[in-house]
């Protein structure tokens, strides 16, 4: 999978070199290229923003640098990429969207800053790829970079070969629409707190039933919305 990221703070993505995704990049499973939006400006101050038409506080990201950046990244020969713009005004990013995007051959992420990106950029981008505005939740960040880091990790770890044991991806929160069950490891008693006896019983059927009950109970109490669908 090829991943391109456009940002005015490209060094933030140096963090992707650490852990699993770093190994996946070295092994060629993930080809991640980060681009500085200012490389697509042509004035002395490398300007990427300007005041909003219609007035209002803050600054809006200019369309020209974005147009040139997207043109440079999405070559003619490209398979049509998915172009993701993280936004609090986007559809909710979920595990099922992460799984869907983990099968895309080419993802492009555009990190907005300031009060956002000129709306015409999203329209132009839809000529080059399938545009998705995606939100991590109902809150606002200063920029899209942290959201893109989270999305790349959530998507990248689902790419076959990135996570050593694919079995470990199956019983995770949200994979089956429920929250995951609680986990325990040695010692059996810790600070007078014991591991649930069923987990020490060796009765695999009873363990599976207990875990399912725990998933349902946790989801009922913490995320009843997941059961409403
Ligand atoms: C600038 O981007 C954001 O503020 C943002 C992006 C994705 N999800 C959010 N909840 C916020």
Automatic annotation (TrEMBL):
Coiled coil: none
Binding site for S-adenosyl-L-methionine: 112, 136-141
GO molecular function, one term: tRNA (guanine(37)-N1)-methyltransferase activity
The protein's Enzyme Commission number: 2.1.1.228
Chief place where the protein resides: cytoplasm
Record-linked Pfam families: tRNA_m1G_MT
Reported function: Specifically methylates guanosine-37 in various tRNAs.
Record-given protein name: tRNA (guanine-N(1)-)-methyltransferase
The species this protein was found in: Microbacterium galbum
């Amino acid at each position: 999978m090829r991943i391109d990221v456009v940002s005015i703070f490209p060094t933030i993505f140096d963090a992707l070199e650490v852990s699993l995704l770093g190994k996946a990049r070295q092994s060629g499973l993930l080809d991640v290229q980060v681009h500085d939006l200012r490389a697509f400006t042509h004035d002395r101050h490398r300007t990427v923003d300007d005041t909003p038409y219609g007035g209002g506080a803050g600054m809006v990201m200019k369309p020209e640098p974005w147009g040139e950046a997207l043109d440079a990244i999405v070559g003619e020969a490209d398979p049509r990429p998915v172009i993701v713009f993280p936004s609090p005004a986007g559809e909710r990013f979920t595990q099922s969207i992460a799984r869907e995007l983990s099968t895309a051959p080419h993802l492009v992420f555009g990190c907005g800053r300031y009060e956002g990106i000129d709306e015409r950029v999203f329209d132009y981008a839809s000529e080059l790829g399938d545009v998705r505005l995606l939100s991590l939740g109902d809150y606002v960040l200063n920029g899209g970079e942290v959201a893109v880091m989270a999305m790349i990790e959530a998507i990248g770890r689902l790419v076959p070969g990135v996570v050593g044991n694919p079995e470990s991806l199956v019983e995770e929160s949200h994979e089956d629409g429920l929250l995951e069950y609680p986990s325990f490891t040695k010692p059996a008693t810790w600070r007078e707190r014991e591991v649930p006896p069923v987990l020490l019983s060796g009765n695999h059927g009873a363990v599976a039933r207990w875990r399912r009950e725990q998933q349902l109970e946790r989801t009922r109490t913490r995320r009843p919305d997941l059961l409403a669908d």
